Amino acid sequence: MCSILICEPDLGTGEVMSLARVALQTTAFQLERRSAAYARAWQRFLEKIPSAEIMFSLPDFDLFRLVPRRARYIAAGATPAQPDSRPSLLCRRRRG
């Protein structure tokens, strides 16, 4: 299992706990360097961060596929976290 926290941008308040965020519990699968999935992930990575191409030559740089298992949305402010297992959140796939 792997946990990831994604927050909305902080506009200078410095109060991370006041931001809307989602915590994801995922299962991580390392992509094999010679696989088609790795090639697709490599291409997408470089589309987003072209200057990072050198990272792929490092022996300890790996790419992973993360499969969400559970999500917890936390609204901006002090709202308590609520688990969310809706298929729309956990199973939504990016097209294209």
Features:
96 residues, 4-stranded antiparallel sheet, 4 strands, extended, disordered C terminus
Task: Explain this structure.
The radius of gyration is 16 Å and the shape is extended. The chain contains two helices and four strands. Mean pLDDT is 81; it is low at 90-96. The two termini are 27 Å apart. It has helices spanning 36-48, 87-90; strands at residues 2-7, 21-30, 64-74, 82-84. It is 18% helix and 31% strand. Strand 3 and strand 4 form a beta hairpin.
Short overview:
This protein is α+β, with helices and mostly antiparallel strands. The chain is built from 2 helices and 4 strands; from the N terminus they run ββαββα.
- Low-confidence runs: 90-96
**Total number of beta strands:** 4
Termini separation: 27 Å
| Largest sheet strand order | 1-2-3-4
Order of H and E elements? EEHEEH
Name the CATH superfamily classification: Electron Transport, Fmn-binding Protein, Chain A
Q: What is the helix fraction of residues, given as a range? A: 10-25%
Radius of gyration: 16 Å
Please describe the biggest sheet, giving its number of strands, its sense, and whether it closes into a barrel: 4 strands, antiparallel
